[in-house]
Amino acid sequence: MADTGAINDTGIAAEAASEAMVGPRGARPRRMLSRRNIFLYGTLIVVAVYYLLPLYVMIVTSVKGMPEIRMGNIFAPPVEITFEPWVKAWATACTGLNCDGLSRGFWNSVRITIPSVLLSIAIASLNGYALAHWRFKGANTFFTILIVGAFIPYQVMLYPLVIILREMGIYGTLTGLVLVHTIFGMPILTLLFRNYFTSVPEELFKAARVDGAGFWAIYFKIMLPMSLPIFVVAMIIQVTGIWNDFLFGVVYTKPDTYPMTVQLNNIVNSVQGVKEYNVNMAATIITGLVPLIVYFASGKLFVRGIAAGAVKG
After folding, report:
1. Which of 247, 258, 280, 87 is nearest to 180 (CA)?
2. C-alpha 170: how far from its chain's center?
3. What is the dihedral of CA 78, 84, 85, 87, to 10 degrees?
4. Contact assessment for residue 271 and residue 145, using Cβ atoms and an 8 Å cutoff
């Protein structure tokens, strides 16, 4: 028995010695300063600086006084911070004949964006749901027309829509502009919703049909609760596009109902008096705040919606 124990001990010792000679096992640790990491992070830093530098210049310029701006160093931080340019851009800057800043245009943009986003998303979600699960006669033709409409340049439709809105008696009104944004949001949003609803397991739809649920019951009780990510995607796309729109705003409205972007253009391109770069920068930042806030507040859901089927199909 003693000899057997000695043999076992000798075997274990020999095995341990052989493992020690082989060395540690597993994946080899990567060096932090490898060529791959240097290239990857270097590229990301350069791209980040490229996009953040203009924003930095805008912000520091917007809180400087004009004497400091005239010194010419646009990258220098402000010696004395002032928020007068922001107040003037919002409340007293001249946008043509009116000198009430961006405040009037802001509320016009709110009255344009909210109904346009709600109407376009509601109609497009129903279109996508019907095209994905309720095959009606002419569905493929209808879908093809919508897709073709997504690639028609806006400029081609400007004058015909002017005539249509004039005949309807809503040309130059916010209602007319809401209708235009709703129409032009249909093609791409319908495509997004159709692709998303197509990715939903068909067994759920069939089970609901077996249980006696109809078109509206399935839509409200099954599809809507599962579709928050794609609704967020559609909301971000529409809010960004409608809020930042200039072309439709300047064509289909009049000075009293100009959206914020048109008023921003009037402030920046004003030829009267001294060119106030700090006011221009402040007005530009104020105009872009709403899409930025919407995106950062719902960015995770946006990524989920894209990954869950928004660009499939």
Report:
1. 247
2. 29
3. 140
4. no
**Lowest mean pLDDT segment, chosen from 56-65, 137-146, 167-176, 250-259:** 137-146
Which residue type occupies 169? Answer: G
Q: Which of 91, 122, 118, 110 is nearest to 291 (CA)?
A: 110
For residue 242, the model assigns a pLDDT of 93
| Helix, coil or strand: residue 30 | coil
SS3 214: coil
Q: Using CA atoms, how far apart are residues 32 and 41, in angstroms rounded to an integer?
A: 11
| Alpha carbon of residue 16 to chain centroid | 60
All structural domains of the chain with their residue ranges: 30-82, 103-310
Query: Could you report the per-residue pLDDT of 123-134, keeping only the tens digit for each?
Result: 999 988 888 887
Instruction: Report phi then psi at 276, rounded to 5.
Output: -100, 95
- The span from the CA of 40 to the CA of 34, in Å, is 10
Query: What whole-number distance in Å separates Cα of residue 158 and Cα of residue 311?
Result: 29
Distance CA 197, CA 313 (A): 11
Which of the 8 DSSP states describes residue 25?
-
| Angle at 22 (CA atoms; ends 21, 28), nearest 5 degrees | 130
d(Cα 233, Cα 227) in Å, to the nearest integer?
10
Q: What is the CATH number of domain 103-310?
A: 1.10.3720.10
Is 173:256 a contact under the CB 8 Å cutoff? no
220-242 pLDDT, tens digit each: 888 888 888 889 889 988 999 99
Instruction: Give the CA dihedral 166, 171, 177, 179, nearest 10 degrees.
Output: -40
Helix-strand-coil split of the chain, %, nearest 5: 75, 0, 25
Q: Is the pLDDT of residue 266 over 70?
A: yes
264 with 284: CB under 8 angstroms? yes
